[in-house]
Design goal:
heterodimer, A: 269 residues, alpha+beta, Peroxisomal Thiolase, Chain A, domain 1, B: alpha/beta, 3-stranded mixed sheet, 11 helices, globular
Chain lengths: 269, 393
């Protein structure tokens, strides 16, 4: 098993607007009122970039900022792993619609929309916002994005011996791509992870994980209303992990990774 | 880092199918670029098109993966005996101990483009037979290769624009070093599509003539398509290995390079440090060298900062075109060919080297034994990746 300490968390989902609200819902201190909204534009981006960045990148940056807040970690030197099944799918949908216009004169696409449609848009804007020179990866694995992405983040922490920002996000795509790939609502999670050897003053929890070549189902969160969310956005597969983190539980979790699974153990400090 | 042996590789690009076709074209200084007949209205210019893609078919069980990107990947799987060598590796370590990490920037978007042209006029719906998950979806490339090779380890796509396939070496090396897997299939593909041809044209980056990286009169890039694969094995027996990798972000702009090239410099220094090499130990640099005025000038500055005017460097995109997310594997294979053959390809199409350049740019092919090659890949979002290949022992 590979090990990492969780130093910070960021969250955005329906009725889970930020870690404070999410924590209250996940511990049943507050009731769950699922009202899908998009986060406000991230303040860290310069005005021009804030206007240009697409909805998925704005979502990713919102949770990334929250995970770092108060951590004392300098974002300019922090490694990042962004993970999303569809990336900036809304912009891709828009570009495909324009390119399919019957008249050639209507097929011209916006250069800004084009360069913002890349999967690593969020990673790019993140590093621009912080003038960061640290690596910022951008990964996709459809319904196994959570498991493969977290596995890769744990491997990077293990091998490089440095903290990694893990940011998992997916935003809804408009019609007609919405009919091809289910993303009912925006959902994003960011974890500031660090090698245990770095010893932060007070990590939130300790995490261990590894690939197991046998099938296992997704561990759902205990609240059935929250469990229902896991089918509506691939990033919401992280809800059981978030629940264990919020409740300060020691828990074993599994997330499917094709014919195998990611095995996780989380424990409070 | 411990050298990571590369036990198999293959490539398909405008120069032909298989590494030997690429080597022959490089030696003959023959470009694969032709006038843009794929989407002339979208961008014009020249393209590096792979012959025979449309006539290729995926075997029955994999028919639902059919899209230009996966057809290119299937050609790469069958080239250079790659699939047989992965099968042998799977017998040695087991299919669950081999991961698949592939880079692509637009995946099977040609399938999406076709589907959008066939929308139902009343409802706007896409055709019922459009299989998004197996074609356009980013993960489609890795899903297809994993299935076609019968592998059972972790798999994902890395999509950091034009640094994607180079980055796949890094992600796989980390998974192997962490003990998650023993081997990985890396590389990737990008295929000609309206999206990138029109998009780069909208950015004003398409050259009206075949791209001429490092030329004083260079005027942009020529887009190509390609697929390529490499097999990395922790305990593999191979003459060549990945000796180091370096990655960085520019943190500057989504589509323009940092004027002082600070991200590119950081990536190359990171790669040298990880390989425990001094700059003088590098015998040849394969530049990202897209052919746009800003990109090549920025990279020249970065190379000169580290290597001064000592290390021969060139861009091979005048031969292949800029194969975007696949360029990292195309140029990794060229680096391996350079090591294997003792052969340094010079830039193609340069009539006058940019007089402002200070690095030692190769304009003609040279032949001599070499031991280590550095390959650069830089992409939108300011994503930078440098890889060092060399003799394993």
């Amino acid at each position: 098993m590979m090990r990492a300490d969780i130093w910070g968390v960021g969250l955005w989902g329906p009725g889970l607007e930020g870690w404070a609200q999410g924590c209250a819902v996940l511990t049943e201190a507050a009731s769950f009122v699922p009202c899908p909204t998009d986060p406000p534009p991230p303040a860290i981006l310069p005005a021009n970039e804030r206007r240009r960045a697409g909805p998925a990148a704005r979502l990713a940056l919102t949770v990334a900022e929250e995970a770092l807040a108060g951590s004392g970690i300098a974002p300019a030197t922090l490694r990042a792993v962004f993970v999303s099944s569809s990336g900036e799918g809304a912009l891709v949908n828009s570009l495909l619609a324009t390119l399919a216009e019957p008249r050639a004169a209507d097929q011209a696409i916006s250069p800004t929309l084009f360069h913002n449609s890349v999967h690593n848009e969020a990673a790019g804007y993140w590093s621009i916002a912080h003038a960061s020179r640290a690596p910022a990866d951008s990964l996709a694995a459809h319904d196994a994005s959570f498991a493969n992405g977290l596995l890769k983040a744990l491997a990077e922490i293990t091998v490089e011996g440095e903290p990694v920002l893990f940011c998992l996000f997916d935003a809804p795509m408009p019609f007609p791509l919405s009919a091809c790939r289910r993303t009912d609502f925006s959902f994003a999670l960011a974890l500031l992870l660090a090698p245990p050897a770095l010893r932060a003053a007070s990590p939130l929890a300790r995490l261990a994980g590894g690939f197991v070549p046998r099938p296992a189902p997704l561990t759902p969160p205990r609240l059935s209303a929250l469990a229902a969310l896991t089918a509506g956005n691939p990033a919401a597969q992280s809800l059981a992990l978030l629940e264990a983190l919020a409740r300060r539980e020691t828990r074993r979790l599994t997330a499917p990774l094709f014919d195998g699974h990611l095995a996780l153990e989380i424990a409070p400090t | 880092m411990k050298p990571l042996p590369i036990t198999a590789w293959s490539v398909v690009n405008a120069l032909g199918t298989g590494a030997a076709a690429t080597l022959a074209a490089l030696r003959a200084r023959r470009s694969g670029l032709t006038e843009n007949d794929f989407a002339p209205a979208a961008g014009g210019g020249f393209i590096g098109r792979v012959a025979g893609v449309a006539g290729h078919h995926l075997p029955g069980a994999f028919a639902r993966f059919t899209c230009r990107n996966n057809l290119l990947l299937d050609l790469a799987l069958r080239a250079d005996g790659f699939d047989a060598q992965v099968a042998a590796a799977a017998r040695r370590v087991g299919p669950a101990r081999i991961g698949v990490v592939l880079g692509t920037s637009t995946s099977g978007i040609t399938a999406g483009e076709a589907a959008f042209r066939q929308r139902d006029p009343a409802s706007g719906a896409l055709p019922a037979d459009f299989d998004f998950a197996h074609t356009q979806d980013f993960f489609s490339a890795a899903r297809f290769v994993r299935a076609a090779l019968g592998l059972a380890g972790p798999a994902f796509v890395v999509s950091t624009a034009c640094a994607s396939a180079a980055r796949s070496f890094v992600d796989a090396a980390q998974l192997i070093a962490a003990g998650v897997i023993d081997a990985a299939v890396v590389g990737g593909a990008d295929s000609l599509c309206h999206m990138t041809l029109a998009g780069f044209a909208a950015l004003g980056l398409i050259s009206p003539f075949p791209c001429r990286p490092c030329d004083a009169a260079r005027a942009g890039l020529s887009i190509g398509e390609a697929a390529g694969l490499a097999l990395l094995e922790r305990d593999g027996e191979a003459p060549f290995a990945l000796l180091g990798y370096g990655e960085s972000s520019d943190g500057y702009h989504m589509s323009a390079p940092h004027p002082e090239a600070r991200g590119a410099i950081a990536a190359m220094r990171d790669a040298l440090a990880r390989a425990s090499l001094v700059p003088a130990a590098i015998d040849y640099i394969n530049l990202h060298g897209t052919g746009t005025p800003a990109n090549d000038a920025s990279e020249d500055r970065a190379v000169f900062e580290i290597f001064a005017d000592q290390t021969p460097c060139s861009s091979t995109k005048g031969f292949t075109g800029h194969t975007l997310g696949a360029s990292g594997i195309v140029e990794a294979v060229i680096a391996l060919l350079a090591l294997h053959e003792g052969f340094l390809p010079g830039c193609l199409g340069v009539t006058r080297l940019d007089p402002g350049f200070r690095a030692r740019v190769l304009l003609d092919n040279e032949s001599r034994p070499i031991g280590r090659v550095l390959s650069n890949s830089f992409g939108f979002g300011g994503a930078n990746c440098s890889l060092i290949f060399g003799r394993a022992g």
